[in-house]
């Protein structure tokens, strides 16, 4: 996926209070849906400025934040330096649309408002499954199916997702215990968009 927009907006990203609130709501939904502990190894995929990881701080252990935007990774590193993100957190340049899954395993993968930008959806879901420790959880927060108004006419990703279709794709990726529930919603230019949380587990 192209990173120009995200590179350009990274420095001001956290000034949008709605983005900060949404990240906290996603983190609360994740904490309510899956077991967390200081031993939980977290991968925040498409982490942006790390807002979800910030909101999960104290509830999980070692954190890896992956984003293919240079600007976003720079903000993450600055946050680690000043203590806004956990000391020792790792920062990865990773795009599973085009790159293989690294040889690592995580207990929890969280991705928030990222999947609708992914082109090779089945491939990326399979790579998430590869990255999970047996018994590990994948949590996806993203848009319900919408009419294209969220991004506008020139957007080449997904206009949200049908919950049943995504659940079937998660099952096809080899994941089990798939559940999709309401997570949050937010307004953009007077239109309210709903966000779901899809939760799945790698068998083991």
TrEMBL record:
MF (Gene Ontology): methyltransferase activity
Extent of the signal sequence: none
Species the sequence originates in: Georgenia ruanii
InterPro entries: SAM-dependent_MTases_sf
Protein name per UniProt: Methyltransferase domain-containing protein
Keyword field: Methyltransferase, Transferase
Top-level taxonomic group: Bacteria
GO term, biological process aspect, one: methylation
Gene3D superfamilies: Vaccinia Virus protein VP39 (3.40.50.150)
């Amino acid at each position: 996926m192209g990173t120009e927009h995200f590179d350009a907006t990274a420095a001001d990203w956290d000034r949008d209070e709605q983005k900060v609130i949404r990240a906290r709501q996603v983190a609360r939904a994740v904490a309510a849906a899956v077991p967390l502990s200081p031993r939980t190894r977290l991968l925040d995929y498409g982490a942006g400025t790390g807002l979800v990881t910030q909101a999960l701080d104290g509830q999980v252990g070692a954190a890896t934040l992956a984003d293919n935007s240079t600007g976003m990774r720079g903000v993450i590193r600055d946050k680690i330096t000043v203590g806004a993100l956990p000391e020792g957190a790792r920062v990865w340049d990773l795009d599973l649309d085009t790159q293989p899954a690294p040889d690592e395993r995580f207990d929890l993968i969280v991705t928030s408002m990222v999947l609708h930008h992914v082109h090779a959806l089945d491939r990326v879901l399979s790579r998430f499954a590869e990255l999970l420790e047996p018994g590990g959880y994948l949590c996806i927060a993203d848009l319900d199916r919408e009419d294209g108004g969220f991004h506008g006419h020139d957007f080449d990703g997904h206009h949200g997702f049908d919950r049943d279709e995504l659940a079937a794709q998660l099952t096809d990726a080899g994941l089990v215990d798939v559940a999709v529930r309401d997570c949050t919603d937010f307004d953009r230019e007077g239109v309210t968009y709903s966000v779901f949380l899809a939760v799945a587990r790698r068998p083991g």
